[in-house]
Amino acid sequence: MRKLKIFLEMIKFEHTLFALPFAYMGAVLASVYVLDRLPSWGELGWITLAMVGARTAAMGLNRVIDRTIDAKNPRTANRAIPAGLISSLEAWLFIAISFGLLFLATSNLDPLSMKLLPVVVILLVGYSYTKRFTWACHIILGLTIGLAPLGAWVAVTGQIDLTAIIFYLSVALWTAGFDILYACQDMEYDRKEGLYSIPSRFGISQALWIARAFHMATAGGLFSLIWLANLSWYYIAGIVIAYIILIYEHRLVSPIDLTRLNTAFFTMNGVLSIVLSVFTIVDLVVRYG
């Protein structure tokens, strides 16, 4: 149990909160929009387990794959594996269990979910390597985390349409944008070690503008769902609040002041995902009712 606690702290298990609300939002939106019903509790339960398994496996892999890099970086040297609190073998055991949970949950959802599972696994495993060869690593991460709402959509409907793709890309660009912000604090280290990121390639000032552009695209994609999914005032209120949070998030950081980066990254993004998902689900539940 002590090792499990260390592992969960190592992968920041509580940050599953970033993507899980979007998975619920995707499940409810898809179910009402495509099937004209609400998702069952069973579907939501298996989606939750799939999300937990996927996110835990992905973060565990990231910590194992990056253990040498983390050991050299003063910001990450005290993480569990570099600090010797947990071994790579123990981490691999937890990762295997997490993938098993993902497989079990996926097998209880729509058959298309199982067919697409290899693609999911490739992204979950592969994105941790991308910082070694491309500054587009943030986009790859976004496309990986964006699988949360898209996977939930497929899980309940067994299909992918234009609305699902736009929702997926909106979440992907939102994730890529805040990952760029987070990477700003490692710009000097990445340059020294020959690692790739948008801040290390373009500098902090331009990286912040790229993150803003990604989040503007996110705002546009979320706005288009009003018509694509026939959403109403509850959803509109939710995206207005989400826009305000995004603007505030970017006002917290500047090229000369990154001291409030953790607030922008952890707190505000968690609030955004919950607020938008809750308002969307209320909109759909009220309409369905």
Topology readout:
Elements: H1 2-10, H2 20-35, H3 41-65, H4 67-72, H5 88-107, H6 111-126, H7 137-145, H8 147-157, H9 162-183, H10 187-193, H11 198-202, H12 204-228, H13 233-251, H14 261-288
Helix pairs in contact: 2-3, 2-8, 2-14, 3-5, 6-8, 7-9, 8-9, 9-12, 9-14, 12-13, 13-14
Q: Class by helix and strand content? A: mainly alpha
Please estimate the helix content. Answer: over 70%
* Total strand segments: 0
If helices are DSSP runs of H or I spanning 4 or more residues, what is the number of helices? Answer: 14
Q: Approximately what portion of the residues adopt beta-strand conformation?
A: under 5%
Based on Cα principal axes, name the global outline: globular
Overall mean pLDDT score?
A: 90
- Biggest pleated sheet: none
Low-confidence stretches: none
Q: If you compute it from the alpha carbons, what radius of gyration comes out, rounded to the nearest whole angstrom?
A: 19 Å
Distance between the termini: 44 Å
Written as H for each helix and E for each strand, in order along the chain, the element string is: HHHHHHHHHHHHHH
Could you please describe the fold and organization of this structure?
- This protein has 14 helices and no strands.
- It has helices spanning 2-10, 20-35, 41-65, 67-72, 88-107, 111-126, 137-145, 147-157, 162-183, 187-193, 198-202, 204-228, 233-251, 261-288.
- Helix 2 (20-35) runs parallel beside helix 8 (147-157) and helix 12 runs antiparallel to helix 13 (233-251).
- The protein is globular.
